[in-house]
Design brief:
With about 350 residues, this protein is α/β, with parallel strands linked by helices. It has a single domain, classed as Histone deacetylase domain (Arginase, Chain A), CATH 3.40.800. Helices cover about 40% and strands about 15% of the residues. The chain has 10 helices and 10 strands. An 8-stranded parallel beta sheet has the order 2-1-5-10-9-6-7-8, sandwiched between helices. A two-stranded antiparallel sheet has the order 3-4. Helix 1 links the parallel strand 1 and strand 2. The two termini are about 35 Å apart.
């Protein structure tokens, strides 16, 4: 197996305000952990230096004037988009390299250079809207890659699964009326966490109706609840849609220790999610899967979680640490009801 690890040193130069949780150490820790675990070898996972995304590709997802504004604020050396999302002199470059990493990764997998890939991108992207930066995101990396696949490479069915604790509002909205992209979000209920979106009632519109599926999870939902979602819904969604390519927004803030969120997954639970997704991609696409780093703010979780992810992509045994997290029965019962609700809403649309 050959796995491309897309990373650029400029990812560490983008800086937010002092003490901000979305900090350069996030990607630095991941690369150092992969090196320490001897996963970066020529016959295994390889560091790949990405190119900048072409603006024409970015403009399929974002407004030109908005992208110019990111460039302007970066040239100025500072600038604010929201109270928690700002720019420094490297933000524009890092954002283009993050989006470019996604395009290079899917192109590399399609072309057979790599069996699969992990884009260790920073800044993250799934909150970025058409003309708005938010939630530490500027360019929607995974959306740009999906757009490239359906528009440039003319694929008919791309599946995006986002398991970040925060709903991927920008990704959802980018393809809300497009049946060529099935968006699946498994996240903490938006009534309890930023950005406040991602209801199971949001199914898409026009040709895209039925191709937007959300699972807003009860706070504290853990391994058992997520297993229920996969067993009772995700497997079926893959089977019905039969994707040609799978993209994953990997948000490690779904771990119970993350201080910005309130979910209850253990390292073993996250490992099982990644294992299941890789196996589903192998079954339906021949293994065409690319992961994108989104959130996750506990450095130890990012390092260990990424090592286990890469082991899975290399078809090696994962090594998640043993953890105990007591998931409440209320969360499990809520998930059972949620899965039934989502299935009923989709019954006449895609099932």
């Amino acid at each position: 197996m050959s796995t491309g690890i897309f990373y650029h040193p400029s990812y560490e130069k983008h800086m937010l305000s002092p003490g901000h949780p979305e900090r350069p150490e996030r990607v630095k820790t991941i690369i150092e952990s992969l090196e320490r675990e001897s996963l970066l070898k020529d016959d295994m996972a390889q560091i790949v230096t990405p190119s900048k995304a072409r603006l024409e590709s970015v403009y399929t997802i974002h407004d030109k004037e908005y992208i110019k504004d990111i460039k302007y604020k970066s040239k100025q050396g500072e600038g604010w988009f929201t109270l928690d999302t700002s720019a420094n002199e490297y933000t524009y470059e890092a954002a283009l390299l993050s989006a470019g990493g996604g395009i290079d990764a899917v192109e590399g997998v399609l072309g057979g250079l790599y069996d699969n890939a992990y884009v260790v991108c920073r800044p993250p992207g799934h909150h970025a809207e058409y003309s708005r930066a938010m939630g530490f995101c500027y360019i929607n990396n995974i959306a740009v890659a999906a757009s490239y696949l359906v528009n440039e490479k003319e694929l008919d069915r791309v599946l995006i699964l986002d398991y970040d604790a925060h709903h991927g509002n920008g990704t959802q909205n980018a393809f809300y009326s497009d049946e060529r992209v099935l968006y699946i979000g498994i996240h903490q209920d938006g009534r309890t966490l930023f950005p406040g979106t991602g209801s199971c009632e949001d199914l898409g519109i026009n040709k895209g109706k039925g191709y937007n599926v959300n699972f807003p999870m009860y706070p504290g939902s853990g391994d058992q609840s997520y297993s229920l979602v996969f067993e009772r819904m995700i497997d079926d969604l893959f089977d019905v849609y039969h994707p040609e390519f799978v993209l994953v927004s990997a948000g490690f803030d779904c771990h119970y220790s993350d201080r910005l969120t309130n979910l209850g997954l253990t390292m073993s639970g996250i490992a099982r999610i990644n294992s299941r997704l890789a196996k589903l991609a192998l079954k339906y696409t021949g293994g065409k899967i690319v992961y994108f780093l989104e959130g996750g703010y506990e450095l130890g979780v990012l390092g260990e979680g990424s090592c286990n992810l890469v082991r899975e992509l290399l078809d090696l045994e994962q090594k998640p640490r043993e953890e105990r997290y007591l998931e409440k029965e209320k969360a499990i019962d809520y998930t059972k009801s949620l899965v039934g609700n989502v299935r009923n809403r989709l019954e006449d649309l895609i099932f």
